[in-house]
């Protein structure tokens, strides 16, 4: 029997590419081209499976052009690049990479919140520009982190990781809002109190967004929500750019309606809204919350494990959908 054909959509750890090549006929992307949808469909037209990295849209149009495709393993915990309904209808299994990135991503979310609150990049730019000439009492005076109120919107694994860091490491009061309330034991572990969305916004000293991006969470924080926050508060987004109305956020940052923001994700990434680039009180990073070498390797290996288990007939390890059987 011929071996399944796999596309690895972006350049990956050589050891993971080699591992996959022991199981499959593998096509790699050594030049690391970010293919457009038409080119991706062309590359996938004769493939049985794919390893994607979150930036490739798997939708009805692509699936129609790729009749052999049976499984797509996303090297990301988020899978908003998957049209799950279209994949279910087409009989295509999707998988993601939960758990292996939780603590690393929570570390980064916490660091980004702190960097925004304590104005770290803004003050570094000032220093590098040779503008530091003397001490002054309010030079880059920011907001307090320890002992303040940490508000988490989206209390999944990563949200809970950030909550634990705030509660246990920094003595913060932790409040959260989520589709569903955590079990009492999970709430106790991160000393977190469930509140409604309005209360979350009004009480937040530092609001952190860690929820999945869906049609229901599109622009979940816009002008109306920002208006309910304290002007001294910060907003950090490590979920997906589309959770925030970026134009409204930029306006709030520019007018002093909000003190600062930390953003690792952007609606049009890798293109960043110029209105955000024009704000000095925002820390901007290029979607790197999970980017440590061990974590990215674990993510790549889990995506590979999913493909291997799927084609072995063991079933996917971390499925995200329940597809109809593909003919
Ligand atoms: C990924 C992420 O690195 O896991 C996610 O959902 O956003 C990041 O950890 C990114 O999506 C590229 O795979």
TrEMBL record:
Keywords attached to this entry: Oxidoreductase
D-isomer specific 2-hydroxyacid dehydrogenase catalytic domain span: 6-321
Keyword Oxidoreductase: yes
Pfam families for this protein: 2-Hacid_dh, 2-Hacid_dh_C
PROSITE patterns associated with the record: D_2_HYDROXYACID_DH_1
Domain D-isomer specific 2-hydroxyacid dehydrogenase NAD-binding: 110-289
Family: Belongs to the D-isomer specific 2-hydroxyacid dehydrogenase family.
Name of this chain's protein: D-glycerate dehydrogenase
Organism name: Comamonas faecalis
């Amino acid at each position: 029997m011929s071996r399944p054909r796999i596309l690895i959509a972006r350049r990956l750890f050589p050891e993971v590419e080699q591992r996959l090549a022991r199981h499959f006929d593998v096509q790699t992307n050594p030049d690391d081209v970010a293919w457009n949808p038409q080119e991706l469909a062309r590359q996938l037209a004769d493939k049985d499976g794919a390893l994607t990295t979150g930036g490739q849209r798997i939708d009805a149009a692509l699936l129609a052009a790729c009749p052999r495709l049976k499984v797509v393993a996303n090297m990301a915990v988020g899978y908003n690049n998957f049209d799950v309904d279209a994949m279910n209808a087409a009989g295509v299994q999707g998988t993601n990479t939960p758990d292996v990135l939780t603590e690393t991503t929570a570390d980064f979310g916490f660091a980004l919140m702190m960097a925004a609150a304590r104005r770290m990049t803004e003050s570094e730019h000032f220093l590098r520009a040779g503008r530091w000439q003397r001490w002054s009492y309010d030079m880059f005076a920011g907001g307090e982190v320890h002992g303040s109120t940490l508000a988490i919107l989206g209390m999944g694994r990563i949200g809970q990781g950030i909550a634990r860091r705030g509660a246990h490491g920094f003595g913060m009061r932790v409040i959260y809002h989520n589709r569903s309330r955590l079990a009492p034991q999970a709430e106790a572990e991160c000393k977190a109190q469930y509140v409604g969305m309005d209360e979350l916004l009004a009480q937040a000293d530092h609001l952190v967004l860690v929820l999945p991006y869906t049609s229901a969470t599109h622009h979940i924080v816009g002008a109306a929500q920002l208006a309910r926050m304290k002007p001294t508060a910060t907003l950090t987004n490590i979920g997906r750019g589309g959770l925030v109305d970026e134009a409204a956020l930029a306006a709030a940052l520019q007018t002093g309606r909000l003190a600062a923001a930390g953003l690792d994700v952007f609606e049009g990434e890798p293109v960043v809204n110029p209105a955000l680039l024009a704000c000095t009180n925002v820390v901007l990073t290029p979607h790197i919350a999970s980017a440590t070498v061990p974590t990215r390797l674990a993510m790549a290996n889990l995506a590979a494990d999913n493909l291997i288990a799927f084609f072995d007939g063991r079933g996917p390890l971390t499925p995200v959908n329940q597809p109809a059987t593909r003919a």
